[in-house]
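Narrative summary of target 7.
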Amino acid sequence: MAEKNIDKKEIVSTVNGSFIMYRNRPLVREENIICYGSMDEKYMLQMIIMSTKDYKGQSVPDKVVVQLMNTDTTLPSHKRIVKQAIEDGLGNAMDLGIIWLERYLAS
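Modeled conformation, tokenized:
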């Protein structure tokens, strides 16, 4: 199996003020909800951990709802959801969500 070439600069997270930054966007978790992106942009991601599983003695996210959200707070919350999917694992949810986010922010 061929290994992917991963740019370590893209996956390194650092603490910047009160938020962890990932790919130059804030990444914030509160209990089972993870938000990625900035309210200053038109869209951001919300990931809701629906279930967890045990992996090597640690509880890790299993089923994750990933939502691309419009940041316009004047809209009702149900109308702010632009795209939504359920993914297996946080990595898959982040990968899909970042693709959506980058595409929508570029348009």
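The chain has a mean pLDDT of 86.
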